[in-house]
Sequence to fold (796 residues):
Amino acid sequence: MSPARSWILTGKAGRPVLLALLALSAAGQQRDSNPYSTPEHVAEGRRLYRFYCVNCHGMDGASGRGARLATTFRRHGSSDADMFRTVSNGIPGTEMPGLWMDEESVWKILAFVRTLEARGVDACDSNPDAAKRGWAVYRNKGGCAACHTMRAGGGRLGPDLTAIGAGRSREQLHDAIVAPDRQIPKRYRTVVASGANGSRHEGILLNEDEYTLHLMDRTDRIRSFQKRELSSIERPSRSLMPSYAQSLSASEIEDLLSYLCAEKEVKP
Amino acid sequence: MTAWPLLFVLTPLTQAQVTFNDLVKAGEKPANWLMYSQNYQSHRHSRLAEINAANASGLSLDWIFQVRIMDKFETTPLVVDGVMYVTVPPNDAYALDASTGVKLWEYRRRLPPKINVCCGQVNRGFAILGDRLFMITLDAYMIALDRKTGRLIWETEMFDYRKGYSGTHAPLVVKDTVIAGVAGGEYGIRGFIDAYSVEDGSRKWRFHTVPGPGEFGHDSWEGDSWKQGGASVWITGSYDPELNLTYWGTGNPGPDWNGEVRKGDNLFSDAVVALDADTGQRKWHFQFTPHDVHDWDATQIMVLADREFKGRMRKLLLCANRNGFYYVLDRATGEFLNAKAFVKQTWADGLDGKGRPIVRPGTDPTPEGNRVYPMVAGGTNWMSPAYNPDTGLFYVPAREGSSVYFIGEAEYRPGTRFQGSHFRNEDVDYDWYGAVRALDAVTGELRWEHKLFLPPWAGLLSTAGGIVFAGTEDGYFKALDARTGRELWHKNLGGRIIAAPISYQSGGRQRIAIAAGSGLFVFGLPAR
Fold:
């Protein structure tokens, strides 16, 4: 118990200010780069990651409700110092907590996290010639731009593929092209809304709540419904994206993958 | 931290002292809303009936108060003589004119930069006595504010927040003490419930929800596991003035999903404890989920009702539990009387004669993941139920669905997550839905249900006008017919509803208030 003496001047303010100063001085001594990066350190980091991080980020850094770690693109900074700050302090206003942990342990966790991002980047390699051929497949025979945006142009029905090569492995992209039904991101689930008047609308589900439903149909048109006006809502477990396993040759698919893997940067 | 006394520029509002007697009789004076669940029996039922099933379709907005927050707005406001007191995340507060929403003062608390809480920097409201308001804070302080100015009067540290302790729920005032517990069940804390003097904040008693060496229940923890046993307290307790007992639900044992490192029943986690309000001595306890491995906290509102049970008037305690069962206990003795599942559950083959679950083999978390109903957030959670003494119905926000539970290692470090693995909801959420359910309070039989598109996080309010008010995840605020569940009215408030409604009277009119998104919304019937 500490009665609040003269609250205007001191009250509770003294303590946080002091803490902030301490934090500042600690930051002053903090290293800019990770001094712990041997395989032993990574193994220890992996062990700690399993305790403290896996719940939200998944063991592969690519599943769960937390941010994707299997990537080099980080909204809160990609340098060692940035990531150290993020893990130590948490991200205010989000569910990412700061870890009360000694500096060494944080660095070891980060050493392991760095091994996750390699899976997303190095696993998507390509050579320039194949990428050039792949660009033609993307534009012409594949017709990918009808539904996907790349940088500034393209359709809206499928995921934006800008910088897709930085966040996905070649294998993941291959699966998405030949077996798109296997993993459909929530944002791209198919819905079929049938009206009482016999109308039928198929598209991706943009919104569904207690009373309303919105979908984007194959012509990019957003359609809005009151649920009470619908006779049925179907949710087929197939993607609106067709499989390219038959319509493209194996070499065309490899070229297409090379093109996608080469797209690693957000450029206009 | 600033406080702006602006009262003098506004119309005079009578400011009588709130006495303990007022609190005891809170249910009989429905113009005010004096405590988190309206009365000591936690009914969250208002005797106001100006708004009723016949005119609810005409509800309209009286005012909105917007706050500058990004976090979840879970508050239950208090209303005394035309002034509303609202806590706002993280630990700020406002006094508002309850008829207009005009701000009278504001309190801002500066918090340390790094506070670890499991589920957002939230606060659920004030308690009140005399001319003081009481709040517990994310850095684990109990504080008292002057209700006319918002000035800080005293503050008492409950525990070191850097070890994962925090405060989130609205305290409960009993006599001249203010009672509250600590949150932090995901951080390896050892939970407790404290009582502080309203006068100077000195501590009157502490009850450890995890018993120490030599105390009853200590042997229900293997080895030293009790030291990080959890059993946090993050929702307001109830109180029976005749028995002078206060009832508190406790949270999960730690680590959440790895029970192998804490063999035993793990008392008093996932339980209700009945404590002498003067001394904190345990009179009885009832553990809903012994040796929990699914994170099914019993931090639900404990509803007190006097009802006939098998031909005899009994003092009952009612609880719709996160583990999927609805319980009826004798609140004088803790005797188990009845239980019935109110959502789909796959973990227990019923309960035995003493109310202990008969756990179905093969339902514990596994390294590969084990799918079990109810979901990790439970058949219900902290959101308030409501009890209408006129209909005899217990209204509960129900959550239907499963989770996949994983077991993993847990290593304790002070102030850091201590959970023993994780859970997954993705891929199993396709059959999730919610409902407002009306149960016969004595038998637990389902009387009606009003289905919701998503499992709700919002609490309920029952009124003598024959209405149950409910909120949804997608931001709709609804009025339902208390006898049938039929929808009478709804309005989209444009943000998640993660709070419970209240009702009060100001300017001669009944009003309904609910926090949603980053706003506090107040509804009433258009002035005649």
In short: The interface with chain B takes residues 1-4, 7, 11-13, 15-16, 19-20, 23, 50-52, 54-56, 63-65, 88-90, 93, 95, 97-101, 208-211 of chain A (CB under 8 Å). Residues 128-180+242-262 of chain A form a domain with the Cytochrome Bc1 Complex; Chain D, domain 2 fold (CATH 1.10.760.10). Chain A has nine helices and eight strands.
